[in-house]
């Protein structure tokens, strides 16, 4: 049975449909750059490197972020022979297809699939399964892990990431506090995943053996002016409209400036816009 896609704190699917075409810019390349770093510096040095015999699934892939990370981090002769790019939102899947029209990947399929019910995918199929910064958007994260486990081959590697510090949320909260400190802060989807150990617990309770799970943490600073501009656009625009609920027109008109000031403070504090992430590796 297909699971419901509406997360209580995310205006899905409209949220991601609108977002697809300008996704990469407005994430400041954060999800792409972290995954590329994970592939180059962790996966390729592990006992389960990606190579020409690999068969990979990037689930809840957005506009093919996993595919872009593979192409960025691997030499052409080490690209996987097969890649499935899937997402539940049709516009993400079409954005993925468009972005892959001239990619060097030997064989890619882009499909609309629910990560929590991969009914058309056989058991024991993939050598690697990527789930990059999506788990907190699922209504039943445990089901998605079970499906990852089921569709991985024995000894296959799952790479599952989630935020420890999602910078835009801190910046938006700082901007809210400058204008209307009396109103509630914008809610974060599934905030429990920011806590240490939660991702690991979900993974261990839904198929993977405890001694086959490893978690590392990574910090990523966004410092390029164009990426900072992309993230600032995200935080100033409609995607963060919920942060302005209860505002007068005059207060709404102060939002852009308040975000810019909060971005400036973030950069003064950390030397860039700071993302912290949990990177989990699990072997079937
Ligand atoms: C924060 S984005 C991450 C996208 C991408 N993996 C990345 O690295 O940037 C979350 C993605 O999860 C997708 N999504 C949400 N619920 C889903 C579900 N049940 N099944 C598949 N995709 C889902 C959204 O459409 C969106 O593309």
Automatic annotation (TrEMBL):
GO terms for molecular function: S-adenosylmethionine-dependent methyltransferase activity. The lineage of its organism: Eukaryota, Fungi, Dikarya, Ascomycota, Pezizomycotina. It comes from the Eukaryota. Pfam families: Methyltransf_11. InterPro entries: Methyltransf_11 (IPR013216), SAM-dependent_MTases_sf (IPR029063). It comes from Xylaria grammica. Residues 66-160 form the Methyltransferase type domain. This is Methyltransferase type 11 domain-containing protein.
